[in-house]
Please model this.
Amino acid sequence: MGFADHVKEIERVGQGNNTGRDAIVVESWRRCLDTYQLDPAKAREAVIVSQTRLREHRQQAEDLVHIARSGLERLYRQVAEQNYVLLLSDRQGVTVEFLGDPSFNNNLRKAGLYLGSEWAEPRAGTCAVGACIATGEALTIHQTDHFDITHTPLSCTAAPIYDTQGALAAVLDISLLSSPILKASQNMARHLVSSTVRRIELANLMANSRHDLVLRFAGAPEFLDVDPEAAISVDGTGRITGMTHGGARLLAASRGLDWRRTELLIAQPVTDFFEAGLDELASLTRASLPQDRRIAVRDGSTLFAHAIEPQQRTVSVPVARASRQPAAMSSLGGNVPAVDELRRKVTKLAPSRLPILIQGETGTGKEYLARIVHTVSGLSGRFVAVNCAAIPEQLIESELFGHAPGAFTGALAKGRKGLVEEAQGGTLFLDEIGDMPYAAQSRLLRVLAEGEVLPVGGSVPRRVDFRVLSASHRSLNDMVAAGTFREDLYYRLNAAVLSLPPLCEREDLPWLIERLLEKHGTEGRPLRLSSAARLLVLNYPWPGNIRELDNAIAFAAALCDDGLVEVADLPDQLSGMPSILRDDSHQADVRAVLTACKGNVSEAARRLGIDRTTLHRRIRRLGIDRRH
Model:
């Protein structure tokens, strides 16, 4: 099929005609035309993201890649002789792992079958990874099924990987630069990819459920112990804590539910889905033969089950805490009330698509929190971060909204898409929104109100659909009162507010320190703090917040010997603190001063040369009971 014929067929589909394509292809083409406003006559070269962005995506997917690696390598060995390449893409469509023949690297990179390639539908049009993210189903996009003419030589087969909470986590794809004409030639490829995904999900569930009962299921006893079709995990109270995608479909089918509504599955009693009690389910171990481990499902069907006992039986927990958070949520902080409350808010707000304003001092992790909200939201598009304070005022409108060809001196001859459009189907994060010029605020308000963006110098608006998050270290409310920030935009942006405390007020500081020590340590050389260095780090006020702490640990990691950070390895601003903080007798010193002041914190703080808030914090961290 030639270029003109391909474009005409897409246009006919857009007009509602049936051209014989698979329904999944037709639906994707229509999304490309109607939702993403892509032009089938305009070729779109494959996009490889920058090294910085790739590093960010790979770090976020690190745990899954580690668990999946052996399955990926096994699959690649099975298909490599047929010239397939293997891509593992994250939920944003960015390839975070790649296996292919190095001798074809140039051709593969040009075709986008390479590490860092971006295959989300709004960016690449109809493709296997993008359509898989959009539908949540295993599928093949074969040659002219692709929307973009530059991708029509390819044949790509992909299957979704779900996390233990039922959310799409990644996509596994195997692709050919060229392939046989018939699409049916890829049926075996789809079977291999789906089987690999099933094993990866099972390994992930096992890794995250060491202290829960795991139940594996198969339709026939012969496959129960070697290749189960589904699995779930159950806690000590008998409630479901995790599942593979097959497990989600099994549970949903047993009650006539939609497997996509995971809130109807996670944290529910396992006895709601099976005609058996928890003790009976737990007894289905290898102590009996596979054919004797039969279990009745609530829909009247029968399965064979294999129970794997927890490594350590967990203590019963309240129902409200039985549901596990997505992996990204655990990185928000330690298990302290303030962070638990933040997790609760993110869990509720992230899927809602409400605009969220994140408030906090510089360095408290506002962009990091925004990325977690995007990850938990389930949006398939990109996370696009814009630092409004870093873009020159005269360029911010063209950067955000793009520009038409020749719109101004120095503009690209072919025009340019703005960052707002780059966020199509995903999240636009406006950092330091308080620094956006007033004129740009007006244009942003119009985009949010009308769902359309008009490029600088352009005359035809383009439809856009994205979720907006914003952040500021300044009080936007005060700026509205001063007339420097538009009140109507302010209310558009702060449908919900998340606040990040300064580091000096975080009760989980020890947890943060340990995470940063892990981050800056290396394999075989873990980082640790000496007692004196730990006291300094715990008691320093950290005006630069987490960013300053991160830099300090990185600095110490470079200077220390054998991974042990001493006081001398820390930055000067820490090692220059008063000597009362330098030795391990600090707790005794504070106790002595409090005793001399008869428990009067104000007087004790004055004698120590610090303010009352700092002393209260030290009393808590040192575990001193003021009554004694």
